[in-house]
Write a structure and sequence with these properties.
With 724 residues, the chain is an alpha+beta fold. The protein is 21% helix and 25% strand.
Length: 724
């Protein structure tokens, strides 16, 4: 997605990643330095393993999965990459020193070195062109280069390969004979680089030709798992346990599930509950649990599990930032959250399969709220087994977490007893800290990826080969800057209005976001019910901005207190989005703003704890398609997500009326009025609405791009015929 700022609401973008023969070669030429075509794939630039990876004592699932057969003398095999070839059994083999170097071979006389390495085959590039670029990259620094031959050959498995042979001099005058053979499969190119003294190469010519001919590229296996049995994603890890707990924002729909969910058409459909009834007055919901619903350990799910999960989420000790937003309509939730009650009064177990839920007023959006992760059901024995329970979770969802190698992978296996039927794809593999998504996608290492704003222009070009895999659409996301109205100077609405009027949103999009996104004039994104395309909202007017500042009790920039802009990041780094805003406030208001970075894994927690400056880098993506999830959830004075502590009695009255209005047209009109009040009072600066760009492999069947994130994996399948 093209969101520019950290999403501070739920379903937030949540939470990065990884010698030559003695006396012969003065330089090891690039050692698989394949230039732009085949740079190292992992770890990705700028990604480092989080501190908790050093805690080796943590309990992790370690299910044994089939492994790649070990290479043996005379044969190299890497099942993870689908690469195999034979070489003389008397030669020695050593592991490659760089991330994309597979192995280094030396013959007994140490006159020849062979390096096997791999990289990406750029979409739309021919084997010949890419092979020749690799050749050029690996001859940098040599002189007197003489081409001996350039030709296409056929390997023993029938695959085409390109061979370049040349002579070149090192800086000491020694002449090398170099043979580079490259073959491709899917988005990956594999090369054998032979170099040594010409006499040695000619002496071993037959052995080298046999080695080249034996090169075999097959469908890669990951951890011994065939690629047609696994959906492969890129992922990361967090050092914050709250990011894995459903009660505190850990929305992992592979593992956990709730009473209801969204389907791919954003319809609320049964999940753990097979059916429900609503009382005539709209305040009592009676849910009937599925008799075949079970935890991953086989224990049946009962109403007691639902009550335990929700009471735990609401408990003061859990300190959930989400529970009041999504379960707060249930009678007794607030009292439980405040520590005034041991149980939630609005929950009643009629029997083991029947749960009655009473809410405080008829609210047409209540069922949609229950699709959110804080409503997920957890196993009490699992949760109370210790602080690291989330590393061996016993959920109810379509997949089980069976292996977690810190810093490397999370491996999920389908739940054969899943109450809606086992998913079509047996495994889901999340590669942790594997690298940049679009590069991994090009090499076939992952099956789908979001596209960053830096790559949008490329993939939208019809001439770009990746374009055929592109899915794009709007998202229900709005990025914003939140004012903390309790802190000066933003307790003065004139100052807030001045800061909002000083931001040129189109220029901001063009400069900071490469033009990706839509300028936001108000709170609601275009795909959300209640969006008004004619709403003018916040506009750019630097003259009026200075006038509003002059009308404030501060009169001018010189009399403003020091202003701190809190954002998610490390050290003193300031990204282009923050820099653009600060530059506009400086240019249009003469205001200097200081940036405060908070560690990303704990950013949301720090905002909710109130440890931040007067300006907050913020944003929100819809959790359900209703404007209540924006206006009420973010700006009602009692809202849990009201990080700026904004309060407007007229707005509260309007929102409380909209909550219970059953006529759809009337509800939308009320929420549009609410948006007007929020914008006029400059409760926040609304910057942009997100657009979604995703690349999906053709063999992944059933993928639907939705404006709200829904659990897709259980709907997907893989077509082996298209898996090349």
């Amino acid at each position: 997605m093209s969101m520019l700022l950290p999403i501070a609401g739920p379903r937030r973008a949540a939470r990065a990643q990884r010698a030559a023969a003695a006396g012969l070669l003065a330089v090891l030429i690039g050692l698989a330095g394949c230039g732009a075509a085949a740079g190292p794939l992992r770890p990705g630039p700028g990604l480092a393993a989080p501190p908790f990876l050093a805690r080796a004592a943590q309990a992790l699932p370690t299910a044994t999965v089939p492994g790649t057969p070990p290479s043996r003398p005379g044969h190299y095999e890497n099942g993870d990459l689908g690469v195999a070839f034979d070489y003389p059994a008397t030669w020695t083999a050593a592991a490659g020193k760089q991330a994309n170097a597979l192995t280094i071979l030396r013959e007994p006389e140490r006159e020849i070195v062979v390096v096997a390495f791999y990289g990406s085959l750029p979409a739309g590039s021919s084997l010949q062109d890419t092979a020749q670029k690799i050749r050029d990259a690996n001859t940098t620094g040599l002189s007197n280069i003489v081409s001996r031959s350039e030709k296409a050959i056929q390997l023993a498995d029938g695959r085409a390969a390109w061979v370049s042979e040349l002579d070149a001099d090192q800086s000491d005058g020694t002449t090398l004979r170099i043979i580079l053979t490259s073959a491709a499969r899917g988005g990956r190119i594999v090369s054998l680089l032979v170099y040594g003294l010409p006499i040695g190469v000619e002496r071993q010519r037959r052995a080298l030709e046999d080695m080249t001919a034996s090169l075999h590229l097959s469908a890669p296996q990951l951890y011994g798992i065939s690629r047609d049995q696994a959906l492969v994603e890129v992922g990361g890890e967090s050092n914050n346990p709250r990011d894995y707990d459903p009660a505190t924002g850990g929305h992992n729909a592979l593992i956990f599930s709730g009473l209801v969910t969204f389907n791919q058409q954003l319809e609320v459909v049964p999940d753990l509950a097979e059916s429900w009834e609503i009382s005539p007055d709209g305040t009592v919901y009676t849910f009937h649990l599925r008799k075949n619903a079970r935890f991953h350990n086989g224990r049946a799910v009962t109403t007691a599990d639902v009550i335990y999960s929700w009471e735990r989420a609401a408990a003061p000790a859990t300190n959930s930032d989400d529970v009041l937003t999504y379960l707060g309509d249930i009678v007794g939730i607030q009292a439980r959250h405040d520590g005034k009650a041991d149980h939630i009064a609005g929950l009643h177990a009629v029997d083991d399969q029947t749960l009655q839920v009473t809410i405080d007023a008829p609210k047409p959006y209540f069922l949609m709220k229950l699709t959110y992760g804080v409503s997920s059901i957890v196993d009490r024995a699992n949760v109370e087994s210790g602080p690291a329970w989330y590393r061996t979770p016993n959920g109810t969802g379509p997949y089980k977490l069976i292996r977690w190698d810190a810093g490397k992978l999370q491996l999920y296996e389908r739940n054969p007893d899943f109450y809606l039927g086992p998913p079509a794809i047996r495994y889901v593999i999340q590669q942790l800290y594997a690298g940049v998504g679009i590069r991994l996608y090009e090499t076939g290492d992952i099956d789908f990826t979001g596209v960053s704003r830096y790559d949008v222009a490329r993939v939208r070009d019809p001439q770009e080969p990746l374009h055929q895999d592109l899915r794009e659409g709007v998202s229900m996301c709005t990025s914003k800057i939140t004012f903390d109205v309790r802190q000066a100077p933003f307790d003065d609405p004139k100052v807030r209005q001045a800061f909002a009027l000083a931001v040129d949103k189109q220029r901001y999009l063009d400069i900071a976001l490469q033009g990706v996104g839509l300028p936001a004039h108000g709170l609601y994104p275009p795909a959300l019910p209640g969006y008004n395309p004619g709403f003018k909202g916040q506009t750019f007017d630097p003259v009026l901005a200075r006038q509003r500042l002059a009308e404030s009790r501060y009169h001018d920039a010189a009399h403003l207190p020091p202003i701190v802009f809190t954002t998610s990041g490390y050290g003193s780094d300031v990204g282009p989005t923050v820099s653009a805003l600060i530059a506009m406030w400086q240019a249009n208001l003469g205001v200097a703003v200081t940036v405060e970075n908070l560690e990303p894994d704990h950013y949301i927690d720090e905002l909710h704890a109130g440890r931040h400056g007067q300006l907050l880098s913020d944003g929100w993506c819809a959790d359900y398609p209703d404007p209540e999830n924006f206006a009420d959830a973010l700006f009602h004075s009692g809202a849990q997500q009201n990080l700026g502590h904004y309060a407007n009695p007229a707005l509260d009255t309007l929102l409380e009326k909209a909550r219970v209005e059953r006529d759809v047209a009337q509800r939308m009109a009320l929420y549009q009025q609410a948006e007007g009040l929020i914008v006029d009072d400059a409760a926040a600066i609304f910057l942009s609405h997100g657009l979604s760009f995703v690349l999906v492999k053709p063999y992944v069947q059933g993928y639907v791009l939705t404006p709200i994130g829904v659990p897709l994996e259980r709907y997907l399948s893989i077509d082996p015929a298209q898996l090349k």
